């Protein structure tokens, strides 16, 4: 099921992670995230491409034109050095965030029902 | 990861970002197509996925497209990410998605619409700026052509002119002697080449009317020094200087075009110059190198001068011109000449004791220091006028921007960036500047024509002044600067306040006006600059007034002058000359309405002639350096000259028919001479000789009053008069005729008498003495007139600016005034309040202006005649004038303020 309220930042980190494996075009990035997340995170097309363009503008990705599996021209994205750095930063920040949320949720005080 | 890496990384990202933006801007269509391609691929892959999972073709495609959502919207969003600056994109519909170029075009459209919306303000702004820029372009054309434009010679900075400087009198003149020339030429390590030249006037005949042209007789080295390509044919060559060679002449380009129609067939054609035949061998354009702007060049030839007079160390009649050798600096050359001068002073102290040879650059020689100063003054003045105009326009635009602040506030609230608004105001300013620049160049061109037509004849100017490259560039730069001022001021004022300020002011309508300090500042600056201009103009006008009131020494009214020269070729013998003039004067005196007539070699008050200076010794006095010599102007006249000219006989008698060849030589002197040579006794009966030249003892038979020879600004100088029949040279050159009534009415009759005696004589320069005297002040009058015009324009602009400010302030304070009146203030109080506001600004401006004028006054001191640069009456007068004008400018809105009806105003609360 697709989650519509993914924060920009989270989406960016996912994309960066996927591209850290190998360069891909937009559709493939979406598919890969879906696969890695065991079909939980389906990215809205309306979010994916703007995110890609945004990240390209910020210099985290660079794009080149290649040929897809179907012999069509495809715009392939890859990580830049600053993109790699952003990935590391984003990952550690997400992990901190997740840990903090987990602490709150496991605090154990629940209202008596 | 260290900070350096981070910075490096940021730099790389930024460069990548720029590249993307540039691409998006330059290859927009391609970028759009790429985005489309990318998204289409996605849809296609999706469709195939769906096919694989079992849907039929049509459903698969429909589903794919549906899943892809709003294809257009996504495409737009992506495109915006490439093109919009920094801000986050709002997908909620209303942001217009435009590239940078589109936004610029939109700004342009808005600007044009805004300017059209208030056509009055736009028109006033454009007209004001156009006139300001046009005037600057016109003046700059002249100044550039005279002072700064490249001379049409090779490396003009290496060409120098030699002058002679007298250390005891402090005078410098541009002539040297022939032995000086030989000495210069010997300094081969300093000078590459040295040339000598003399000014010659020629009567050009042979094609059309006889015409007087300015010429130059030059030595062999002249054209090699200049090293320019002739326009046609060749320059003078060594072969032309050989004895017995056919006489060759080179024409100046201006003369060639004017007189010979630019016809290449002029080569080889004969021309008659003052009776001698020359062959034209070429045309050159180097006429602008010397201040006399000669139009024809002939070889210099000393044939008629006896050799011993040529070698005299006190016979200054040549101009010397040289090119410095490569590697020698001007200072080194000057030092060498100083050494040379000292040696000569020791060798011939009687002639050269206090004399030294000096060098100046050819460009310096071209323009006299007063002219240079006057030109720079005019350029500065017209620049100030533009500044005032510019401030006025800035005020106009500021006022208009403030009127639109409500509109701006709303736009700010709706999300337009402050930068965007500022940019739009700037574009409006640029549009105005561009329009004014174009029109200004056109106006400048026309104005230049008019200006050149008004230039008095005494001021020589190059004949090709116009809008060339540097002038147009100047126009562009000036327009850009003005655009900065009146573009940025409104922007700065309207965008620095926050949103609240805008809304608050417009709702309550009271409080301090937004931007009033900037506007006041501009008006104060305008007033100060106007004052500066007015003071300068006032000083120059007073100076001119003093000049034109100066006593000429002759009667100016009812006097006609004309130049009649007898060419040596047709009148070689002195008796012929005497007979001619004798008969001519008799005939003229018999004409009706002619009182008397006389002839002279040198007309007074700038009429010109043979301007000869000779040194005189009283009888019995030893020659210098032991004895005192008195230099004086040497003037050859006919009997009756003094009566005709109105010069008073103070003692003794005038020349008469008994003073002729064979009778005892006589002379008359003026007061100034008598004071110098015979300070404590009467000069009558004493004998004097011009010891370097004639060396003949003449008896002083009369003393006359002083006269200004060179023009009304000339100081009294010693003059010696000699009867024409007792001198060979110089010859009579000009006639002076005393008439009853308008002198010019007799011009034709007089000319007819001349032609009756000799039909081939050119009769030139017919003018009344009044005209001559007036034109001798031509330069001063012209500069004063222009400066006065500029000052008045600045005053008008400043008063309009002040009026506008006070008027606007009254409008803004309408409510406050209403309240005051309701609380009991009388009309008079309101009047006083408003007027006080205007006067306060004006007086501040006057104060600043006076200070500036005091400082700047030093600079124009050299141009003033008997007027001090800090002449108090001028300063006070101008200050009062400005205060008066400011009073009137404030009074009009003040009167309007008193008519405010407090009831009406308060009701709108």
Q: Layout of helices and strands, plus pairs?
A:
The complex is a heterodimer of chains A (113) and B (909).
Chain A: H1 8-21, E1 24-25, H2 26-36, H3 45-57, E2 61-67, E3 73-79, H4 81-105
Antiparallel strand pairs in A: 1-3, 2-3
Helix pairs in contact in A: 1-2, 1-3, 1-4
Chain B: H1 3-26, H2 28-52, H3 57-68, H4 71-83, H5 100-117, H6 119-148, E1 159-166, E2 172-173, H7 178-186, E3 191-205, E4 211-218, H8 222-226, E5 232-233, H9 238-241, E6 248-252, H10 253-260, E7 270-273, E8 276-284, E9 296-299, H11 307-310, E10 319-324, H12 330-347, H13 349-352, E11 355-361, H14 362-366, H15 369-403, H16 405-413, H17 418-454, H18 469-495, H19 499-508, H20 516-548, E12 559-564, H21 574-590, E13 594-600, E14 602-603, E15 608-609, E16 613-618, E17 630-637, H22 641-645, E18 649-652, E19 666-670, H23 671-677, E20 687-689, E21 698-704, E22 719-723, E23 734-739, H24 747-757, E24 763-768, H25 769-776, H26 778-812, H27 814-822, H28 827-860, H29 872-898, H30 902-907
Can you tell me about this structure?
- The complex is a heterodimer of chains A (113) and B (909).
- By secondary structure, chain A is an alpha+beta fold.
- Chain A has 4 helices and 3 strands.
- Chain B has 909 residues and is of the alpha+beta class.
- Chain B has 30 helices and 24 strands.
- In chain B, strand 3 and strand 4 form a beta hairpin.
- Chain B has a 6-stranded mixed beta barrel with strand order 3-4-9-6-8-7.
- The two termini of chain B are 65 Å apart.
- In chain B, helix 26 runs antiparallel to helix 28 (827-860).
- The A-B interface holds A 25-27, 44-46, 49-50, 53-54, 56-60, 62, 65, 68, 70, 72-75, 80-82, 85 and B 1, 9-10, 12-14, 16-17, 20, 34, 37-39, 41-42, 44-46, 48, 67-70, 73-74, 77-78, 81-82, 89.
């Amino acid at each position: 099921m697709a989650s519509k309220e993914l924060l920009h930042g989270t989406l960016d980190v996912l994309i960066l992670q996927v591209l850290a494996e190998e360069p891909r075009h937009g559709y493939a990035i979406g598919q890969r995230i879906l696969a890695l997340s065991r079909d939980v995170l389906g990215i809205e097309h309306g979010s994916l491409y703007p995110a890609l363009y945004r990240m390209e503008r910020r210099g985290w990705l660079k794009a080149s034109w290649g040929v897809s599996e179907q012999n069509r021209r495809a715009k392939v994205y890859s990580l830049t050095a600053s993109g790699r750095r952003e990935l590391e930063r984003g990952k550690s920040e997400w992990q901190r965030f997740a840990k903090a949320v987990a602490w709150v949720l496991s605090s154990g005080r629940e209202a008596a029902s | 990861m260290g900070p350096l890496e981070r910075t490096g990384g940021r730099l790389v990202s930024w460069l990548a970002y720029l590249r993307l933006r540039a691409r998006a801007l330059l290859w927009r269509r391609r970028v759009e197509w790429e985005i489309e391609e990318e998204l289409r691929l996605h849809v296609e892959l999706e469709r195939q996925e769906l096919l694989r999972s079992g849907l039929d073709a049509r459903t698969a495609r429909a589903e794919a497209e549906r899943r892809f959502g709003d294809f257009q919207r996504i495409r737009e969003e992506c495109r915006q990410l490439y093109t919009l600056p920094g801000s986050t994109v709002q997908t909620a519909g209303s942001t217009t998605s435009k590239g940078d170029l589109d936004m610029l075009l939109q700004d342009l459209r808005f600007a044009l619409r805004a300017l059209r919306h208030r056509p009055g303000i736009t028109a006033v702004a454009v007209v004001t700026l156009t006139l300001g820029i046009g005037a600057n372009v016109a003046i700059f054309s002249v100044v550039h052509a005279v002072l700064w434009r490249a001379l049409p010679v090779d490396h003009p900075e290496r060409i120098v002119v030699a002058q002679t400087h007298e250390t005891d009198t402090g005078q410098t003149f541009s002539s040297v002697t022939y032995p000086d020339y030989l000495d210069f030429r010997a300094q081969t390590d300093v000078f590459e080449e040295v040339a000598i030249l003399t000014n010659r006037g020629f009567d050009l005949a042979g094609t059309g009317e006889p015409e007087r042209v300015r010429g130059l007789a030059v030595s062999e080295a002249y054209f090699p020094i200049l090293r320019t390509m002739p326009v046609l044919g060749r320059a003078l060559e060594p072969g032309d200087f050989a004895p017995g060679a056919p006489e060759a002449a080179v024409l100046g380009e201006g003369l060639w075009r004017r007189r010979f129609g630019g016809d290449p067939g002029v080569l080889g054609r004969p021309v008659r110059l003052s009776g001698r035949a020359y062959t034209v061998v070429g045309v050159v354009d180097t006429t602008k190198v010397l201040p006399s702007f000669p139009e024809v060049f002939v070889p210099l030839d000393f044939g008629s001068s006896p050799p011993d007079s040529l070698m005299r160390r006190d016979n200054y009649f040549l101009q010397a011109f040289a090119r410095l050798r490569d590697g020698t600096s001007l200072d080194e050359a000057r030092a060498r000449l100083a050494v040379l001068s000292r040696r000569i002073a020791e060798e011939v102290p009687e002639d050269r004791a206090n004399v030294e040879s000096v060098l100046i650059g050819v460009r310096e020689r071209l323009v006299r220091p007063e002219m240079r100063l006057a030109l720079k003054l005019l350029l500065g003045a017209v620049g100030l006028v533009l500044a005032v105009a510019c401030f006025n326009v800035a005020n106009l635009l500021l006022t208009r921007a403030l009127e639109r602040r409500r509109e701006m506030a709303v736009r700010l609230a709706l999300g337009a960036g402050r930068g965007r608004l500022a940019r739009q105001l700037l574009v409006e300013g640029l549009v105005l500047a561009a329009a004014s620049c174009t029109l200004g160049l056109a106006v400048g061109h026309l104005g230049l024509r008019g200006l050149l037509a008004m230039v008095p004849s005494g001021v020589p100017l190059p004949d090709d002044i116009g809008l060339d490259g540097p002038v147009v560039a100047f126009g562009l730069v000036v327009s850009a600067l003005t655009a900065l001022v009146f573009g940025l001021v409104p922007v700065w004022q309207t965008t620095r306040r926050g949103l609240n300020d805008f809304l608050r002011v417009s709702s309550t309508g009271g409080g301090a006006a937004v931007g009033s300090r900037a506007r006041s500042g501009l008006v104060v600056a305008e007033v100060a600059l106007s004052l500066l201009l007015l003071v300068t103009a006032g000083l120059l006008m007073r100076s001119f007034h003093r000049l034109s009131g100066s006593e000429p020494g002759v009667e100016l009214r009812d006097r006609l002058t004309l130049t009649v020269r007898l060419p040596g070729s047709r009148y070689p013998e002195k008796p012929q000359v005497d007979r001619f003039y004798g008969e001519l004067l008799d005939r003229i005196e018999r004409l009706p309405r002619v009182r008397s007539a006389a002839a002279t070699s040198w007309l007074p008050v700038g009429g010109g002639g043979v301007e000869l200076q000779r040194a005189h010794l009283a009888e019995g006095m030893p020659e210098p350096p032991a004895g005192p010599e008195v230099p004086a102007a040497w003037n050859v006249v006919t009997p009756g000259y003094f009566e005709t000219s109105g010069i008073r006989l103070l003692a003794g008698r005038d020349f008469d028919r008994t003073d002729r060849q064979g009778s005892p030589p006589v002379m008359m002197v003026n007061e100034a001479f008598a004071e110098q040579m015979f300070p404590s006794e009467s000069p009558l009966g004493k004998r004097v000789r011009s010891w370097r030249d004639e060396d003949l003892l003449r008896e002083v038979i009369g003393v006359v009053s002083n006269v200004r020879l060179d023009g009304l600004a000339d100081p009294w100088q010693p003059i010696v008069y000699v009867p024409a029949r007792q001198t060979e040279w110089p010859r009579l050159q000009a006639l002076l005729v005393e008439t009853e009534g308008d002198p010019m009415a007799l011009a034709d009759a007089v000319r007819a008498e001349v032609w009756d005696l000799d039909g081939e004589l050119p009769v030139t320069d017919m003018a009344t003495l009044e005209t001559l005297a007036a034109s001798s002040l031509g330069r001063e009058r012209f500069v004063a007139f222009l400066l006065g015009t500029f000052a008045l324009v600045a005053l008008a602009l400043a008063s309009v600016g002040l009026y506008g400010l006070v008027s606007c302030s009254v409008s803004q304070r309408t409510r406050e005034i209403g309240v005051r009146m309701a609380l009991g203030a009388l009309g008079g109080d309101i009047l006083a309040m408003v007027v006080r506001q205007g006067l306060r600004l004006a007086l501040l401006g006057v104060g600043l202006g006076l200070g500036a004028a005091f400082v700047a006054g030093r600079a124009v001191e050299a141009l003033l005649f008997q007027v001090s640069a800090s002449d108090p009456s001028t300063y006070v007068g101008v200050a009062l004038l400005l205060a008066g004008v400011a009073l009137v400018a404030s009074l009009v809105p003040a009167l309007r303020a008193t008519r405010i009806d407090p009831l009406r105003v308060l009701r709108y609360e």
